[in-house]
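Page 42, continued from yesterday. The earlier attempt failed because a stray header line got pasted into the input along with the sequence. Redoing it now with the clean sequence only.
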Amino acid sequence: MDWQGQKLSEQLMQIMLVAFSVIAFATGYFIGSFRMMLLIYAGGVVLTTLITVPNWPFFNRHPLKWLDPIEADRHPKPQPAVSKKKPSKSSHQKMQMVLSWCLDTFLIVDDFLPVLFIFEVENL
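This time it went through. Structure tokens are written below.
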């Protein structure tokens, strides 16, 4: 199944499921049968599955053209360059500042927690 076939299959699936759900609800409502509604919807799901899941020929109208293995070996895929830069001191210093701020904030909050707890207990 090609890319356009996958798109067509998904669109068919969505349209068919919505159509069968509307038909099933309307039929179940007018007949007054929940069982009939579920049977119609289940039949719609099965029919939708049989139409959209198999690789039917109309889903493969635009096949992809693959390279021959010999041709692929002649033109290897370029490899990305590996950079071995060390982090600059400024980013290292920024990280230290952020960690220091977080630690200071935690210690300040940690110092106030017992005070807040005692205040809550005394006000009960």
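Notes: The chain has a mean pLDDT of 78.
Reminder to self: strip header lines before submitting.
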